[in-house]
From TrEMBL:
It comes from freshwater metagenome. CDD domains: SDR_c. GO terms for biological process: fatty acid biosynthetic process. InterPro entries: NAD(P)-bd_dom_sf (IPR036291), Sc_DH/Rdtase_CS (IPR020904), SDR_fam (IPR002347). Pfam families: adh_short_C2. This is Unannotated protein. Keywords: Oxidoreductase.
C-alpha cells in the first residue's frame, strides 16, 4: 500500500479522447503512475498506436462516439463488463467547430454538432459512470473544457457555448454527489500544442496567443499533469471547480 496519493495502482482509469493531444499525454502519464488505463476515441489508428506504445491489452482499447448517447452507454457497459469498476474518468474528447464565423453566419447544424460532442458527450458520460462510482463510494471525474468557456473567443460561438456549458454542468453535479466520495471538476486550458488547432483560423489563433501573458502555448504534458492530479486520490477536497492552465490568461 503506497502513501503517495498520486499513485494509481489498482485503479481503472477511463481516458476519453486518448488517441491524440492532451488525452494521449494524460493516458501516458496516468499509466506511468500505475493505472490500468482504458483508452477510447473515434480515431482507431490513433488508439492502435497508443495501445502499442503502452503495451495495452485489447480490452483496454474501446471505440466511442461522443456525439451518440448509445455509443457512450455501450462504452461504459463494456468497461464495467471487462474491468468491473471505473475509479476515474478523464474526458478530453472534443471538436473546435466553426471558427472566425460571425454569429449571423453561424448555422444550426455545425452548432448542434459541436455542442452534441463537447457538451452532451460530457453530460451522458457523467450520467453513465456516476452510478458505478456511487456504488463504491469513490470516483474522480475531469472534463476538459477551455478558457473559451470562461472568456469566450469571438467567432467561436458553438465552442464557447459547449465549453461554458461544461463548466456550469460540473458545478451542479459536484454538489449533488459531494457526499458520495466522488469529485467532478473541469479544466480550462488556453492554447495547447496539439493537432486540435490545425483547422483554427489564423485570426483566431493570433487572438488567443496574444492573450497569453507567458507568451507561449502550453504543452500537452503540462495539461496532463493537471489532469492526473484532478483524477488522483490527492484531489479529495475540490469539486465543481474549474482548474486552469492558461499561461496567466485567466487568474480567476
Ligand atoms: N489544444 C488546445 O489548444 C485546447 C485548448 C483548450 C481546450 N482544449 C480542449 O482539450 C480537449 C482535447 O483537445 P486536444 O488539444 O488534445 O485535441 P486533439 O484533436 O489532439 O484531441 C481530441 C481528441 O478527441 C477525439 N474526438 C473528437 N470527436 C470525437 C467524438 N465524437 N467521439 C470521440 N472522440 C472524439 C479526437 O479523435 C481526438 O483524438 C478538447 O476538449 C479541446 O476542446 C484544447
Amino acid at each position: 500500500m503506497t502513501s503517495d496519493l498520486r499513485d494509481f495502482s489498482g485503479q481503472i482509469v477511463l481516458v476519453v479522447g486518448a488517441a491524440s493531444g492532451i488525452g494521449r499525454a494524460a493516458a501516458q502519464l496516468i499509466a506511468s503512475r500505475g493505472a490500468t488505463v482504458i483508452i477510447t476515441d473515434l480515431d482507431q489508428p490513433g488508439l492502435s498506436s497508443l495501445q502499442q506504445e503502452l503495451n495495452l491489452k485489447s480490452n483496454q482499447v474501446k471505440n466511442v462516439d461522443l456525439g451518440s448517447q448509445s455509443s457512450i452507454q455501450s462504452l461504459v457497459a463494456s468497461v464495467i463488463s471487462d474491468h468491473h469498476q471505473i475509479d476515474a474518468l478523464v474526458n478530453t474528447g472534443g471538436i473546435v467547430g466553426p471558427t472566425n464565423t460571425k454569429l449571423e453566419d453561424t448555422d444550426w447544424a455545425a452548432f448542434e454538432k459541436t455542442v452534441s460532442i463537447n457538451l452532451f458527450g460530457t453530460i451522458w458520460l457523467t450520467q453513465e459512470v456516476i452510478p458505478h462510482m456511487k456504488s463504491r463510494k469513490y470516483g474522480r471525474i475531469a472534463h476538459v473544457a477551455s478558457i473559451a468557456g470562461k472568456e469566450g473567443n469571438p467567432g467561436m460561438h458553438a465552442y464557447n457555448t459547449s465549453k461554458s456549458g461544461m463548466i456550469g454542468f460540473i458545478k451542479g453535479v459536484g454538489k449533488e454527489v459531494a457526499t458520495e466520495g466522488i469529485t467532478i471538476n473541469a479544466f480550462a486550458p488556453a492554447v495547447i500544442r496539439t493537432p486540435f488547432n490545425a483547422g483554427t483560423s489564423d485570426e483566431t489563433l493570433k487572438y488567443m496567443l496574444g492573450r497569453i501573458p507567458m507568451g507561449r502555448v502550453g504543452e500537452p504534458e503540462e495539461a496532463a499533469e493537471m489532469l492526473a492530479f484532478m483524477v488522483s486520490k490527492a484531489c479529495s477536497f475540490t469539486t465543481g471547480f474549474t482548474f486552469d492552465a492558461s499561461g496567466g490568461r485567466a487568474t480567476y
